[in-house]
Amino acid sequence: QVQLVESGGGLVQPGGSLRLSCAASGFTLDYYAIGWFRQAPGKEREGVSCISGSDSSSDSSTYYADSVKGRFTISRDNTKNTVYLQMNSLKPEDTAVYYCATGLLGPHKGDYPCSVRYLEHWGQGTLVTVSS
After folding, report:
1. What is the band of 59 on the pLDDT scale with cuts at 50, 70, 90?
2. What would the pLDDT profile of 61-73 be if each residue is shown by its tens digit?
3. Cβ-Cβ contacts under 8 Å for 87 (sequence gap 6 or more)
4. Residue 78 neighbours by CB under 8 Å, 6+ apart
5. Are strands 10-12 and 126-130 parallel, antiparallel or unpaired?
6. What distance in Å separates the CA atoms of residue 29 and residue 60, rounded to the nearest whole number?
7. pLDDT at res. 58
8. pLDDT-above-90 percentage for the chain
């Protein structure tokens, strides 16, 4: 079955760093977009970052929410079938459960690859707490 497993969360102080991992199984990650989302207590889920699928004709494209741009970096390691989210300069407002998600049937050409309409498979989440 298609499965995504997040790891790497934990407790860090403001200004610290964490690297989250999203390990895929049941499919080959290379060609599919992976999105990172987060949900803080009492708040709605928000998109954090996205990396598009890649093929022989193009590299992946990356996307970031304004709130994390310049601090977070998304990348993929196709050898390990894993997508990473490097999080630097963490702030208390980054505290949330972080989820990765993918969809095997999209996106359509020209569409944002991490639109939730395309993301059918979600991990269980990993908790990031930023607190002094």
Report:
1. confident
2. 999 999 999 999 9
3. 17, 18, 19, 20, 68, 71, 72, 94, 128
4. 28, 29, 30
5. parallel
6. 12
7. 67
8. 82
